[in-house]
Amino acid sequence: MDYNQRFNILKGQIDGIKKMILDQRDCVQVIHQIKAVKSSLNQLSRKYIENSLKDCFNAETMDTEKLDKILKLIY
C-alpha cells in the first residue's frame, strides 16, 4: 500500500469521526474510531521510518547526520 492510499484512508477515518461527533453518536463508537485512527497513523509512521532508514543505509554515501536526526525523532 502506498503512502497516498494510506493518507486517503486516514482522511476518511478522520472525516468519519468528525461526522460522528457532529451527529452526537455514542461516545464508545467515537472512541473506538479514534483508536483505529491512532493505529493507522502509527502504522504509517512505522512504514515511513522503516523506508527512510532503508534509504539511508542503501545510499552510496550514508548521511549520518540525517540518520542521527531520524533516530532522535524516534527515541
Topology:
Layout: H1 3-22, H2 27-58, H3 64-74
Written overview of the protein:
The chain has 75 residues and is mostly helical. It contains three helices and no strands. It has helices spanning 3-22, 27-58, 64-74. The radius of gyration is 17 Å and the shape is elongated.
In short:
The protein has 75 residues and is mainly α. It has helices at 3-22, 27-58, 64-74.
What are the key terms here?
75 residues; mainly alpha; 3 helices; 0% strand; elongated
Quote the beta fraction.
under 5%
Quick one: how many beta strands? Answer: 0
- In percent, how helical is the residue content? over 70%
Mean pLDDT: 87
N- to C-terminal distance? 26 Å
Shape descriptor reads elongated
Number of DSSP helical runs = 3
**Unreliable parts:** none
Any idea what the radius of gyration is? 17 Å
Largest sheet: none
- Helix/strand structural class: mainly alpha
Listing every helix as H and every strand as E from the N terminus to the C terminus, the arrangement reads: HHH
